[in-house]
Amino acid sequence: MVYKLVLLRHGESDWNAKNLFTGWVDVPLSEKGVEEAKRGGTLLTEAGVTPEILHTSLLRRAISTANLALDVADLHWIPVKRSWRLNERHYGALQGKDKKQIRDEYGEEQFMQWRRSYDVPPPPIEAGSEFSQDTDPRYAGEPIPATECLKDVLERLLPYWDEEIVPDLKSGKTVLVAAHGNSLRAIVKHLDNISDEKISGLNIPTGIPLYYELDENLAPITPGGTYLDPEAAEAAIAAVANQGK
Ligand SMILES: O=C(O)[C@@H](CO)OP(=O)(O)O
């Protein structure tokens, strides 16, 4: 049995375009992001990949991206499950801050440690501050973080992966996960068994479906999966890596 999984990072958001740390701040897609999302749907259709169930985060950039892509693919009707456990990494006190300014103020090393190290979280966000989510009703009763490193993301994501996504995969359904740069990096790390060091060099582009076929142990048949537009993915990956420069 081959299991089929599609990972889709949301299209460009308003804050991606402005180069701001976003995390759990619920910003919309930019116009370019809307187009990227629709193109994601076209790429699915052209590749003959047909998602049968959707999992998204609770953030509108992922939800809107999935809706737009699935609408184009005429699959807007498939069942959906949502969880904060698929949210972007919580960026703590960096949420709402300009990436270039933070890089200039703290230096490249600290900037990259906060942005891409596996286990060093940024400083926590202050409860009640402008970009904090502590009173947001969608998270009521949930053990939500005040900052996260990628290791924290993987730890909060894995229960959802094991309890909700794996059973859907094992039922034979093609599963679409619409989420975020860092929550998808966590899934890719888990699937491809990438080391804590090597994961810092992995970036996920916006709006380009990453298709995996998995064996009976849920190990990727093609390591790293396949971007449905490999050329566009290569350029977009470089752009993500260079943010803040
Ligand atoms: O700001 C963020 O939330 C993320 C994704 O856009 O940024 P980065 O790629 O720097 O981790």
UniProtKB/TrEMBL annotation:
Annotated EC: 5.4.2.11
Top-level EC class, please? isomerase
Q: Which residues form the active site?
A: 10 (tele-phosphohistidine intermediate), 88 (proton donor/acceptor)
Pfam families membership: His_Phos_1
Q: Which Gene3D superfamilies match?
A: Phosphoglycerate mutase-like
- Is Isomerase set as a keyword in this record? yes
Site-annotated residues for Transition state stabilizer: 180
Q: Which UniProt keywords apply?
A: Gluconeogenesis, Glycolysis, Isomerase
List positions binding substrate: 9-16, 22-23, 61, 88-91, 99, 115-116, 181-182
User: Quick check: keyword Isomerase in the entry?
Assistant: yes
Any GO BP: glycolytic process
A molecular-function term among this protein's GO annotations: phosphoglycerate mutase activity
Known catalysed reaction(s)?
(2R)-2-phosphoglycerate = (2R)-3-phosphoglycerate
Q: What InterPro entries has UniProt attached to this entry?
A: His_Pase_superF_clade-1, His_PPase_superfam, PG/BPGM_mutase_AS, Phosphogly_mut1
| Pathway, per record | Carbohydrate degradation; glycolysis; pyruvate from D-glyceraldehyde 3-phosphate: step 3/5
Task: Give the family this protein belongs to, as stated in its UniProt record.
Answer: Belongs to the phosphoglycerate mutase family. BPG-dependent PGAM subfamily.
**Purpose of the protein:** Catalyzes the interconversion of 2-phosphoglycerate and 3-phosphoglycerate.
Q: State the name under which the record lists this protein.
A: 2,3-bisphosphoglycerate-dependent phosphoglycerate mutase
